Structure formats: C-alpha cells, structure tokens
Amino acid sequence: MLEAVERKIEQYVLDLNEPDIAKVVSKIPAGKRLRAKLMLEIAGNGLSVVKSAAIVEMIHAASLLHDDVIDDASTRRGVDSINAIFGNKSAIMVGDVLYSKAFYELIDIDRFVAKSISNAVVQLSIGERKDVYMGDSFNTDKAAYIEMIYQKTAALIEAASESAAILAGKPKDIYKTYGRNLGIAFQMIDDILDIVSDSKTLGKPALNDFKEGKTTLPYIYLYEVLNTEDKEKLKSLHKRALKLNEQEWILAKFKEYNIIEKAKQEAFELINEAIEIMQKAGEHGLEAIAIKMVDRSF
Ligand code: FPP
Ligand code: MG
C-alpha cells in the first residue's frame, strides 16, 4: 500500500517537469513514512487517501530539508543531508517547491482535510522557531518543552490521523488523540536517543541536542533533582562543545538519578494511552504501529 504513496510522490515531482529538482528529490531518503502508514491504516488505500498521504509526506520532507539547514546538519537518516550535498540554498528552495506543490494538490482533496493539514503546518513552523530560540537559554520549563514538541512534531502526525479519519468517515477525536500522543512520544524518544545512542547508530553526534542548546526532557528532569552546585555545573556546560569528561559527567548524573528511565516512562505512558484507545476501537493495525514504535526505539 505504501508503494502507491511512493508512486504518487514521484508523480507529483514529475508533474513539475524540472529534472534538476527531481534529481535533488531523488537523493532524499524516504524514511519510515510513519505519517503515510497511519493514514493508510486508518482510511485504506483509496485515491484521496493516497494523495493526502503523499501530500503529508512531501510537507514532512520539506520541513526536514529546512530543518537541516536551520540545524546545520550534515547528515539525515545516516546519509549526507541535502544541504550537505547541494548546499543550503538548494535545500531551502527544493523544500519550498515540495511544500508548495503539496499545498497545490491539497486544495482539491477536501476542505476539512485542507484545514487540518494547513493548520498543522502553521504549528510546525511556530514549533520549529520555538525550538531554535528556546535553545538560547537553559530551559527548565517542562510545559514549554511539551508544547514546543507538540507543535514541531506531533501537530502534523495529529493532522494526518485526523485527516484520514475525515476521509474514512470515522469519529475523528480518538484518531487525533492517538496521533498527538504518538507524535509527542516519538519526539521524546528521539530526544532520549540523542543521549543514549552512540553517534554511529544515530547518524549524528551524541549529546548533540545539549550542545545545540536544547534542554530536552531528560535535562529538565536532571536539573530538577541536582543540588545547587551541580545545577550550576550543568548550566555551565549548556550550549558548548563538551570534552569527553564533561559528557561522562552528564551521563553519570543521568544514571545516578535514573533520569532516562523516568523520561522513557513518560513517553511510554502516552503510547500506552494511544494503544488503549485503539484497542477499544478495534483498530489493531494502529495498536501494532504504536507498539512497534516502542520496540524499535530501544
Ligand atoms: C525536526 O526536529 C524538525 C521538525 C519536526 C519540524 C521542522 C519544521 C520546519 C523547519 C518548518 C518548515 C515549514 C515548512 C512550511 C516547510 P529536530 O531537529 O529536533 O529533529 P532531527 O533530529 O530529526 O533533526
Ligand atoms: Mg534537526
């Protein structure tokens, strides 16, 4: 079924009649296609669903092209990022093309689907900006972190689920909650992996978030429990290229206070709630996607 979405994306890109752009797009690794998978699982593989899934994946791809420029990332999904291969200008402009083409196709789908997805793109742009500027200072506000990751990551997954429910004529609220929970948990897990994975598995340097100024959930929890002296020490390491012994100090403190477990628990609670909702609704495929998200990550 996912194959139909891949073909639709290819077709949308071919429609542009711009071989140079198609060449750049062909270098974007497809990734897990989580959003498309959810949509097909919720609504089947009718043409509107396939088109909507392709649109959502193109918007997601565009946002990552821009994100890698903003984050100055040289790799994505373990391979060279588009900005690393073709330069920042190309990554931004191809992102703009993908995004605009997606919106051009979106207007013909359904008014409520268009509203849901376009609103999510507003949220994801606002969330990205928050993520960047929150990194200027050491954020200790958990609610601000959750709101930011909701906007940056979960809003589009929530809208993908809601849109699929609209297309399938299913009650949209439970699918929205499912998508929202999965999205927030997904970003929490991504942020935990930045700490627990080695740089090879991750495709980017470990503890990179903290170096970038991002105090993700584990850092917020750690700050809460440290004594005054250690709080100051952690703050002094924020947004710096860390020496090996400084990295080890942070990792040892995470271990001492069982912080990673606590952060994982928070993500798992959201996923469990999503699983329960889908169990009740008899949506076993969606249940399985949620379970797999936990299994694959750690
Ligand atoms: C990845 O976060 C980034 C996002 C999920 C959203 C990025 C959104 C934008 C750049 C707005 C773009 C808007 C349009 C209209 C195209 P991350 O840096 O935490 O994750 P990573 O480790 O995967 O890079
Ligand atoms: Mg990034």
Give the tally of structural domains.
Answer: 2
Oligomeric description of these chains: single chain
Q: Return residue spans where pLDDT drops below 50 for at least 5 consecutive residues.
A: none
**CATH fold topology of the largest domain:** Farnesyl Diphosphate Synthase
Q: What class would the helix/strand composition place it in?
A: mainly alpha
From the N-terminal CA to the C-terminal CA, the straight-line distance is 27 Å
What do these coordinates show?
With 298 residues, the chain is mainly α. It folds into 2 domains: 1-109, Farnesyl Diphosphate Synthase, CATH 1.10.600; 111-298, Farnesyl Diphosphate Synthase. 78% of the residues lie in helices and 1% in strands. The chain is built from 16 helices and 2 strands. The protein has helices spanning 2-15, 19-26, 34-43, 47-70, 82-86, 88-106, 111-134, 142-168, 172-196, 199-202, 208-211, 217-225, 228-237, 244-256, 259-280, 284-297; strands spanning 75-76, 79-80. Helix 3 (34-43) runs antiparallel to helix 4. It is globular and about 60 Å long. The chain starts with a helix and ends with a helix. The site of magnesium ion has 3 residues, from loops. Magnesium ion is lined by residues 67, 71, 73.
